[in-house]
Specification:
By secondary structure, the chain is an alpha/beta fold. It has one domain: Phosphatidylinositol (PI) phosphodiesterase (TIM Barrel). Helix content is 33%, strand content 17%. Bound molecules: SN-glycerol-3-phosphate and calcium ion (CA). It comes from Staphylococcus marylandisciuri.
Amino acid sequence: MGKTFLLPSYAIIAHRGNSYYYPENTMLSIKNAVKSSVSMIEIDIHMTKDHELVVVHDEKIDRTSNGKGRVRDYTLRELKTFDFGTWKGAHFSNQHIMTLKEVFNYLANENICLLIELKCPHKYPNIVSILLDEIGHSSFPKNQVIIQSFSVKSLIQIAQFDTQISLGLLVKRRNFWLQNLKLKRYRKIVDFINPHYKSVNSRWIAKIHKLGFKTFPYTVNTFQTGLKMFNYGVDGIISDRPELMIDIKDNIIEAGT
Ligand code: G3P
Ligand code: CA
């Protein structure tokens, strides 16, 4: 069986959950993204010392918790003792790091897709097989998952293990035109090219579509930029402010079609 990912039209993707208002990558930010009726939630994955996949953006926990040090130097049990909410506001103090399994369980009955970013895969031996195993054993439907990464090497590895999972290549702004030259060869591996929004224009979007990719620019947080992206013809928008993007989509884009 091939890939069966069903792409919502004009996907609105809550970046690290509803992260403008709530502590990023926590259950609170995910719950609030679900409440906002987004089509997709983006999360970042690292791995603990005892090989649990956890949802956190940075390699170190210093910025988003009251702890210090690298995720991979702690067991899950140790990481769970830290507070991952207070940095965003004292009233968020009850937030703890989540495992990917917890996210899958929470979203299992929601009609929502999950965009999982594999962070620093070269630093975590076996992370690809552990991730695919967790996806395979979870009750969250595989055809509602996209794995994305800046690491082409990891995406190639995933494609070799699993031909059903949808994949996205993230492209940094400074690499954009360089990567652009190689895009055609990535078509056999990835389904989405997700660039920094400042690299995008309508000509590039047309080209990316002609090559058979879909595209979600990141991270679009203003009204003007959101409107511009929709008018360029992107397939979705990755945003810290998903409600603002939903507003543009419902009241300007779809109302005008
Ligand atoms: O989803 C794309 C975006 O998340 C990539 O950058 O640093 O926010 O993970 P970053
Ligand atoms: Ca990310």
